[in-house]
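Recall the central idea of this unit: under ordinary conditions, the amino acid sequence of a chain determines the structure it adopts. In this exercise we apply that idea directly, starting from the sequence alone.
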Amino acid sequence: MKSFGIALLVIGLALPVAAQQSQNKANRGPEQRFEKMDTNQDGKISKEEWKGRADAFDRLDTNHDGFLTMDELKQGRQAARQNWAQNLQKMDADHDGRISRQEWQGRAEMFDRLDANHDGFLTKDELQNRRGGARQR
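Accordingly, the structure predicted from this sequence is:
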């Protein structure tokens, strides 16, 4: 079960990004994305420069100064990874090491994309392979 949890944590690195970003954006690292958003190049991202949802900005702005630093974004990514892994572990209600369509709590389209062999279950291998595929895009 621990190895499944670790695998789920690993896929959390890529899935949220891959699901929401284009092919070009997926190939850039966080530093390059940060630099692109920081249009005035002051080393921080203001609400005006932010391209995401306002509530996400507020959640990431941990010191509430109205700006996001690279450290705050990294901390936010780490928290998102941990939440993703925990959510996937919770979804595995019968603790069989895989997530069935009935256990899945996300969008059906995402399940279908992740279920590479279309057997109605998400396995550790499918989730890891999806991570690798997202990076190669």
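Residues 47 and 67 are 7 Å apart (CA to CA).
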